[in-house]
Amino acid sequence: MSVLEIRDLHVSVGEGDDAKEILRGVDLTVRSGETHAIMGPNGSGKSTLAYSIAGHPKYTITGGTVTLDGEDVLAMSVDERARAGLFLAMQYPVEVPGVSVSNFLRTAATAVKGEAPKLRSWVKDVKTEMAGLEMDPAFAERNVNEGFSGGEKKRHEILQMRLLKPRVAILDETDSGLDVDALRIVSEGVNRTRADGDVGVLLITHYTRILRYIKPDFVHVFVNGRIVEEGGPELAEKLENEGYASYVKGSTEVASA
Ligand SMILES: Nc1ncnc2c1ncn2[C@@H]1O[C@H](COP(=O)(O)OP(=O)(O)O)[C@@H](O)[C@H]1O
Ligand SMILES: [Mg+2]
């Protein structure tokens, strides 16, 4: 049983006079076994939330707390966050020249677990998970992110999540750039992780379509750097029909009042 707790989180980007507050007091609790969808318009700060939890150096925490099972996440290095069981899909978005997917995954698993996984079971696990995501075995020998298509990047993220078995997984725009078939395959990968049990999932998305495949327990509407409404899956349906216009208008009035 794990709990990720975000309390009154304030985050800025930029330095000195250019500093701009992006997150303006985020409160959120994700427990293992729960799937939370964060939904909001472009530019509302959803990725900033994900990057801040990941420990991206561009984002300055100016207030609030993030804890995982009571441990201060904000005091941890990026590696410590991974070892603590946090998985952030876009943690390593860069090309890693000369490092194959296969070596990368094994190095990541060794770092997270504190010891190298047993070779025989590891090879089998990688094969099984790649097959589950309908990935060509040759993909394992390609260099990380080098020439990956949008769909390959997303599958690679979900492959990492499958193999690293996190306690809390944060997936940012996992649906972007995927065609319908790829979306289904990737969603099924996420659902297998949920079915394995004991993982908390924070699914960040602009569009409702991924929620047809991954059913959230809770939906949070995110506008202008904070959560403005919360509900169950029915809230996603309302957003599908009505969009974010009413929330955005409301938040502008508050901001200029
Ligand atoms: N590194 C950065 N430097 C400057 N502005 C940033 C940076 N990251 C995010 N922002 C700004 O913060 C706001 C929220 O961005 P983002 O978190 O990417 O939103 P979303 O993921 O909801 O589309 C935007 O106005 C964006 O321009
Ligand atoms: Mg984003």
Q: What would the CATH topology be?
A: Rossmann fold
Share of helix, binned: 25-40%
Number of helices: 8
Distance N to C terminus? 42 Å
The CATH class turns out to be: Alpha Beta
- Spatially, the strands of the biggest sheet line up as 6-7-8-3-9-10
Are there runs of 5+ residues with pLDDT below 50, and where?
253-257
Give the SSE string. Answer: EEEHEEHEHHHEHEEEHH
Strand content: 25-35%
Q: Judging from the principal axes of the Cα atoms, what is the shape? A: globular
Tally of DSSP β-strands: 10
List keywords for this structure.
257 residues, nucleotide-binding, 6-stranded mixed β-sheet, binds magnesium ion, 8 helices, 10 strands, Fe-S cluster assembly ATP-binding protein, alpha/beta, disordered C terminus, binds adenosine-5'-diphosphate, Rossmann fold, 4-stranded antiparallel β-sheet, ATP-binding
Lay out the secondary structure.
Blueprint: E1 3-13, E2 20-31, E3 35-39, H1 46-54, E4 59-68, E5 71-72, H2 78-83, E6 86-88, H3 101-113, H4 119-132, H5 150-164, E7 168-172, H6 180-196, E8 200-205, E9 218-223, E10 226-231, H7 233-242, H8 245-256
Parallel strand pairs: 3-8, 3-9, 6-7, 7-8
Antiparallel strand pairs: 1-2, 1-4, 4-5, 9-10
Helix pairs in contact: 3-5, 5-6
Residues 46-47, 173 line the site of magnesium ion (MG).
GO molecular function, one term: ATP binding
Domain ABC transporter: 4-249
InterPro entries: AAA+_ATPase, ABC_transporter-like_ATP-bd, FeS-cluster_ATPase_SufC, P-loop_NTPase
